[in-house]
Amino acid sequence: MLTVHHLGKSQSERIVWLCEELEIPYELKTYARDAKTMLAPPEYKALHPIGSAPVITDGDIVLAESAAIVDYIVAKHGQGRLTLRADDPGFASFLYWFHFANGTLQPGLGRLMILNRLALTEDNPMLMAMKARTERAFDLVEARCGQAEYLAGSAFTTADIMSVFTLTTMRYFQPYDLGRLPNIRAYLARIAARPAYQRAMAKGDPGMALLLS
């Protein structure tokens, strides 16, 4: 049985959402963060040597890393759904945005979070450079959301599942105002209307306000 080990307010929400979109059988085990440190509890860290979310188990297999898990589930349990074939005109865009999520967008906001916790002055060169890099990343998503219904084009894909966490839940850890980004806000409204997204968030993080605007 495929088991999704979901740490509250974490990137593992992607995996719960993916399973709901594919409508495949899975077991969901939820774990709460430590109330003081906001870190994963010891039983979650023990699941995999890296000690961070997400993690799945599937029989004897233990797998971490969002993108690896998404590819694994789609290939083994999803018959390749929610991806684009190499002969699809949107294939290159699909690959780009799928990897942009954890290659550029998420690391940028994560590094900005760390720098902000160091209480640096606003004119600190490193902080200024990371703010500018993060702005460019969000601007790129904003432009794309004005061009297409979903990141890979007209079809909803795993590129969207990989990206939405940073645009939403990650902002609990590093606030980011979407007020200047109307295309992203409209995109997130489309995401919020998806029944599978609604089910996933209700199961994984019940009661959590969704930062969709």
Overview of this protein structure:
The chain has helices spanning 13-22, 42-45, 66-76, 91-117, 125-147, 158-167, 182-192, 195-204; strands at 2-7, 27-31, 55-58, 61-64. It has 213 residues and is of the alpha+beta class. It has 2 domains: 2-82 and 198-204, Glutaredoxin (3-Layer(aba) Sandwich), CATH 3.40.30; 91-194, Up-down Bundle (Glutathione S-transferase Yfyf (Class Pi), Chain A, domain 2). It has a 4-stranded mixed β-sheet with strand order 2-1-3-4, with helices on one face. Helix 1 (13-22) runs antiparallel to helix 6 (158-167), helix 1 (13-22) packs across helix 8 (195-204) and helix 5 packs across helix 7 (182-192). The longest helix has 27 residues, at 91-117. The protein is globular, with a radius of gyration of 17 Å. The chain starts with a strand and ends in a 9-residue tail after the last helix.
What's this entry about, in short?
The protein is an alpha+beta fold.
How many structural domains in the coordinates?
A: 2
Main β sheet profile: 4 strands, mixed
Low-confidence spans = none
- Assign the CATH class of the largest domain: Mainly Alpha
What is the percentage of strand-forming residues?
5-15%
Query: In terms of structural class, how would the helical and strand content be classed?
Result: alpha+beta
Shape: globular
Helical coverage, percent range: 40-55%
Strands, count: 4
